[in-house]
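For this section, I looked closely at a protein sequence along with its fold in C-alpha cell form, which I now present.
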Amino acid sequence: MAQTAIKLFWVSMICMSAVLTLTAFVSPHWIVSSGGNATCGLIKFCNTDVGDCVFPYDNYGDNIQDIPGVYWQSAATTACFGAGIAALTSITAVFALCFRTLISAVYYATWVIAFLLFAAMALVVAGFGEIRAPEVSNTTNNTVLQPDSCQICGPSTSAFNLEECEIGLSFILAVLSTAMAMVACVVGRVFVMPAVDELDYKSS
C-alpha cells in the first residue's frame, strides 16, 4: 500500500510538472514591465506600444531568429524540448502505474526534463540584457524612437539584473515545474527505482 502511494505521488509530480511547463512555455508573462502594460515570454509577447495586448497574444515571428537575442533563442529551444518530453513522459508515467517495465524510462526522462528546464531558466536570466530598451533620444524631426517588441526593461538591465521590469507569473510557474521535476527525480531514485529493482530480482 505504501509503495502504491509513493508511485501515485511520483506520477502526480511528473504530471503537474508537465502541465506547469507547457503553461509557462506558451505564456508571455515571463518578464513584466514596471507599468504592467508589456510582457515578454519565450515565444510570445504583449506590448501595447506595438499592438494590442489580447489573447492569444503576438508571436515574435515565424523563425527562431525573431526571438530577441541568442540567450532567449536558446532558452526557447531548450524549453520546447523540455515541454515536449514532459508531455510525453507524463502520459507514459500514467501507464507506468500498470506496466512496471515503463518505470525506468519515465525515471530517466524525468532527469532530462529537470535538466532542460533548469537550463532554459538559466539562459533566460543570463539573457536579461537582450530585453532592455535602447537609450532613446529625440531625432531631427523631434520624434522618439520606439522600442522593439520585447525591449521593455530599463537600459541598465543586464544578466541577472532587471531594471524597470520584474519576474512574471510564467517564470514562477517554470521554477515550480522544475522543482517538481527535481522532487520526482529524488522520489524516483530513493523510493521507486529500488522497489522496481527488488521486484526484478525476485522475479529472476
User: Anything to note?
Assistant: The helical segments are 2-26, 70-96, 103-126, 169-203. The first strand starts at residue 31 and ends at 33. The mean pLDDT is 86.
